[in-house]
Amino acid sequence: MSQKPIEVVVKTLQEKKIPIKAEGDTRGSIEVDKTKLVETAKVLREVGFDHVKAVTGIDFPDQSKFQVIYHVSSFDLELSRVILALKTWTSYKDPVVPSLINVWGSVWTGERETYEMLGITFEGNPDMRRLFLPEDFEGVYPLRKSFKIRTEGLFVDKSS
Amino acid sequence: MTSQVDDLMKSGGMELDVVPVTGELNVGPQHPGSGHMRIFVKLNGDIIEDAEIDPGYVHRAVEKLSENRNYIHLIPLVERPAILDSVNMNLGYILAVEKILNVDVPERAQYLRSFAAEISRIASHLYGMGILAIFIGHSTGFMWGFGDREVWVQILEALTGARVTNSYVIPGGVRRDLTPTIVDMTKKAITYMRKKMKDWERIFLNNPNIKARLQDVGVMTREEAIEWGAAGPNLRGSGVYYDARKAEPYGAYSKLDFEIPVYKEGDSYARTLVRFEEIEQSLRILEQVIKDIPEGQILSDRFFKQIPPTRLKKWWEGQKRVVMPGYYASFRPPKGEAISRVEAGRGELVYYVVSDGSAKPYRLRMITPSYRSIYVMKNLLKGARYADLVSIYGSLDYFPPEADR
Predict the structure, then answer these.
(1) CA-based nearest residue to B375, from B61, B134, B52, B105
(2) Displacement of CA A129 from its chain's centroid (Å)
(3) To probe the interface with A, which of B37, B38, B238, B339 has the most A CB atoms within 10 Å?
């Protein structure tokens, strides 16, 4: 039985003092403060994680804050089996996160979508404009929990 | 006079002479070359200086709707974005849910999943090649692509009961079993496709006009492909050996023998060749599945036991169909998160599901391959000739609804 792919990554990253947690054989997560986000990303890039699969923002209205998650992986044969979640938090009052566009170009679409859907600004990203929504869209940001969808009931009243 | 002719002959009379006229042009949203999308191009002569991609015309907010639906009700929703590749869209979502639920899937169901996914991949690639053909004015390729696709769609129809939105994969297994008729149909289809591939090669791939339109157009180097986050055939056309089926085998892929075609050129022609050769590999996989598929259950025991005996007798013993157990109506998975990846027809498809212990997902993130192609296309269009816009667009196999979700 060979070594699990995540164990190699955990060992290398712990030497560089990055708080990594292994979750399963091929998954891991790193939770950092947003001030340390860029330098952590740079270390990950040096280790060989060369692209970002997904940028996700999650709204937690009960704690008045957002979580931003970058899922990082690699096209290298061995490293490609691992997906790392780089997590950070930001508050409602100050929804700003440093952008990682200078570290990984592939965050471009994800950061832009997270901005328009949740209203989190990525500092340093030159393209903070709307991508999917119409230009005249009004109201709260759609992926916040305070945005309610108007739903129709299952049963429609019969017309007499 | 002679010197003028000499000057011309140096460049074969084909010297590029850019007329310094700048302009802006809207391609789409109703342009035949843009699908449901607008591309705003800034031109200098016929060189594209900058391209602004404006998707969102078919946005239907799957991620937001998912916060208001039960897990099982989401299956038809997540496969809507790419209806021509619905088995793969379905499968990726179910893999993420299964990780949260912690379910084991029987061997036979794993093989059936790979079977349906490969048929879906062939159909998706034929669709992509057909669209590329009509973009560059090759009507035969378009008609052949859609005609050959029909063969595979009919097998899916026989297997799942639906033509396009199959909803075939459910947590813990699949909905229906393979029958001898479907095996026969598949064998015939494989023979037909092998024969047809030679015709495709003659009329499409080795066609000098197609080569002239695709070769050395939209060249993406290996480093650029990685930096821009390309996925699937676009990535493999640039020389990166990566396939989610090999990196993290799901279904029965760890037991099946297949190769991943990789090309170094990185131009539109290489991307088309990758898709073409993947069809051949998919045919190989289908043959192996038919030969090796083990006997057994197609639904995990944990759920199978919950189906009432009267229903079992009528549907399972009669027609080999699974009736949804009551558990599916509104199950509450434990708290947690899962990220899954599958290799869909257009490339890698990632689902990230966060569960807070209620019957609905707290957050569902869906990263489709076309979504990742937006940035790739924006960068590839810069510096290309305006006439090559359709070649680049078509060769990326970009599908607007899938990118918008």
Answers:
(1) B52
(2) 18
(3) B339
Q: How far apart are CA A2 and CA A24, in angstroms?
A: 15
Backbone angles phi, psi at B34, to 5 degrees: -130, -5
For the domain spanning A5-123, the CATH number is 3.30.460.80
Structure tokens at B132: 């590329």
With tokens 């078509």, the residue in question is B394
User: Residue A134 class from Cβ within 10 Å (0-12 exposed, 13-18 middle, 19+ buried)?
Assistant: exposed
Question: What is the C-alpha separation between B266 and B264, in angstroms, rounded?
Answer: 6
**CA geometry: angle at B235 spanning B40 and B90, to 5°?**
90
Q: Residue A105: which of B228, B367, B374 has the nearest Cβ?
A: B228
| Boundaries of every domain in chain A | 5-123
- From the list B64, B362, B404, the residue facing A149 with the nearest CB is B64
Query: Which residues of chain A approach chain B closer than 8 Å at the C-beta?
Result: 26-27, 50-54, 56, 58, 69, 71, 75, 77, 80-81, 83, 85, 104-106, 108-110, 117, 131-134, 142-143, 145, 147, 149, 151
Candidates B367, B380, B405, partner chain A, best to mutate (most A CBs within 10 A)? B367
* Closest residue to B55, CB basis, from A105, A110, A131: A131
Per-residue pLDDT of chain B (405 residues; tens, 9 = 90+): 456 666 655 666 566 665 567 788 888 776 666 677 888 888 887 888 888 888 888 888 888 888 888 888 888 888 888 888 889 999 999 999 988 888 888 888 899 999 999 999 999 999 988 888 888 888 888 899 889 999 999 998 998 888 888 888 988 888 888 888 999 999 999 999 999 999 999 888 898 888 888 888 888 888 888 888 888 888 888 888 888 888 888 888 888 888 889 998 888 899 999 999 999 999 999 999 998 888 888 888 888 788 888 877 777 777 778 888 878 888 888 888 888 889 888 888 999 999 888 888 898 988 999 888 888 988 988 888 888 888 888 888 888 888 888
Query: In sequence order, which residues have a C-beta less than 8 Å from that of residue B68 and are 6 or more positions away?
Result: A149, A151, B360
Query: Which of A58, A75, A151 is opposite residue B68, by nearest beta carbon?
Result: A151
> A26 vs B248: CB contact, 8 Å cut-off?
yes
CA distance A160 to chain B (A): 31
Residue of chain B whose alpha carbon sits nearest to that of A79? B247
| Contact state of A52 with B229 under an 8 Å Cβ cutoff | yes
The shortest C-alpha distance from B55 to chain A (Å) reads 6
Joined together, the tokens standing for residue B48 give 């594209």
pTM (two decimals): 0.86
